[in-house]
Amino acid sequence: MDDSPGLETSRLDELTWREVESALERTRTLLLPVGSVEQHGHHLPLGVDVFMPEAIGEMVAERVSALLAPPVPYGVTPHHTFKPGTVTVSTETFQRYVFDVCDSAADWGIEHVLLVNGHYLAQDPELEVVVRRLRTESDVEAFHVPLVELFADVAEEVRTGEVSFHASEFETSIALELFPELVDMDAATAVDPPAESLPLTDYDALGENRVGWAFTAEEMASITPAGNVGDPTVATAEKGAALVDAAVSDVVTLIEELERRRRAE
Asked: What is the pLDDT of residues 169-227, one digit of tens each?
C-alpha cells in the first residue's frame, strides 16, 4: 500500500490481515454493497442490483481511503418471484445477516459503515432498521445509502422517459455505463404501468411516493409481462455516466468528512 488518498487495494477479501491492520491506520470506513438477485426484464441480468453498488464502491475507494467489503447479494425481493432466477430471503434473515457482518467488522476497528443499496426502494425499510441497530447496539456510525437518492437530482435532469420504475431508464443507463457487455438492448422493451395509482403512490422511482407501500408477486405479474416497468429503450451510457458520477461524488464527500472528524478527535 502507498501513501496516496486511496488504498492500493481496497477490496477487503483481497487483503491479508496484516494489510487490513495497516489500512486501519488511514481509514475506519467500510463500504458494504447490498443488493439482490432478481429478474430485470428481458435485457438486464439478474445481478444488476449487486453489480451497481459494488462497481460504485470500487470507484469511491479509488478516490478516498475506504475498505470495500464483498457484497451481500441476496435481498428481500418476494415481488419478483413471478419470474425464474429471483432469489429472496426473509426480512428477518436479511437484517440479521447484514447486522452481523457490520457488527463483526466493528470488532476489528471499523467505525463507519456505509450500506450502499442497489436494491433501493424495495428494501429501504429493512436497511433503515439495520442502521438504527448498529448505531444503538454496536456503536457503529452506520448509514443507509440508497443509490436512487444519490443520483435523483441528476436523474431528473437527464431523463427522457416519463416512467422509470424497475429495470428501465435509470438502471439500464447505469448498466450500459458500468457493465455494457451484460446488457441486451435489442431485447429491451417498454412497459407502461397502469394509468393511475393510488393517492400518495406512484409508479416511478422519482415519483410522488409519500407513503410506504409494496408490490406482491401477483401484482407485478399483472403489471409487466416482460419484468420491467418503464421504458429502457431510452437509456444511454452517457446518462449512466452522469448518474454514476453523482453517486460516487456524494459518497466520497461523506467519507471524507467522516474521516476528517475522526482524525480531529
From this structure: 999 999 999 999 999 999 999 999 998 999 999 999 999 889 999 999 999 999 999 99
Residue 35 grid cell: 443488493
CA-CA distance, 55 to 122, in Å (whole number)? 20
Per-residue cell: 264? 480531529
* Confidence (pLDDT) at 5: 44
Buried b (16+ CB within 10 A) or exposed e, 57-79: bbbbbbebbbbbbebbbbbbbbb
109 three-state secondary structure:
coil
pLDDT in tens, 51-107: 999 999 999 999 999 999 999 999 999 999 999 999 999 999 999 999 999 999 999
pLDDT over 70, % of the chain: 97
**DSSP characters over 170-233:** HHHHHHHHH-GGG--GGG---BPPPS---TT--SSTTS---S-----HHHHHHH-SSS-EE-GG
* pTM, rounded to two decimals: 0.95
Cell digits for 161?
A: 422517459
pLDDT at residue 2 in the model: 39
Of 221, 98, 243, 103, the C-alpha closest to 169 is 243
Residue type, 230: G
Q: What is the set of domains in the chain, with CATH numbers? A: 12-264 (3.40.50.10310)
Comparing CA positions, the residue from 115, 134, 132 lying closest to residue 75 is: 115
Judging by beta carbons within 10 Å of its beta carbon (0-12, 13-18, 19+), is residue 91 exposed, middle or buried?
middle
**Residue 136 in contact with residue 145, Cβ under 8 Å?**
no
What is the Cα 46 distance to its own chain's centre? 14
